[in-house]
Design a protein that fits this description.
about 200 residues; alpha+beta; 5-stranded antiparallel beta sheet; 10 strands; manganese
Length: about 200
Amino acid sequence: MKGMHYLLAVATLAVAASVVSAYDPSPLQDFCVAIDDPKNAWLNIPGNTMNPVGSNVTTVNVGTLPGLNTLGISLVRIDYAPYGQNPPHTHPRASEILVVVEGTLYVGFVTSNQADGKNLLFTKILNKGDVFVFPIGLIHFQLNIGKTPAVAFAGLSSQNPGVITIANAVFGATPPINADLLARAFRLDKNIVLDLQKQFWSSN
């Protein structure tokens, strides 16, 4: 009898584990009637690309457009100066589909750690009208390889996808991550790490 209870408990845990999800939960309602007016949720205005990375991301998520609440989607407009980039970053809660509206972009993502210890890089050059998908949680980037400005739009599978810009998070954390740890992790001289930590790391 004890064996039967044990098997029942294991089966119950297996079923429970199979339905656990890190994605947005299923909505509790069909839609949300937003009371507040949208805040900066306009994608017809080019963003200011006069910054160190040469790009600007205009985000329309639940924070700027409350009507997205429970819908599990958001949208961004990305403007790129000539040779501007959207540096390596990740969205912890969403996959992303990007379409180029103007210009030519070099885009890519890196796989998570493989069994053989390698991380594979997948890249593509996109022209106007081309589409590319970045899987949830993976580090990805875009680079304008043209001499003229570029524009892209991206849809994300979360109302609040989050973004972690890798260099900003690693070298711009407050308080700073221990420099000895970073020097060893990145195989850099500690003075280089200290210099990187003194830089102004800003979000685009």
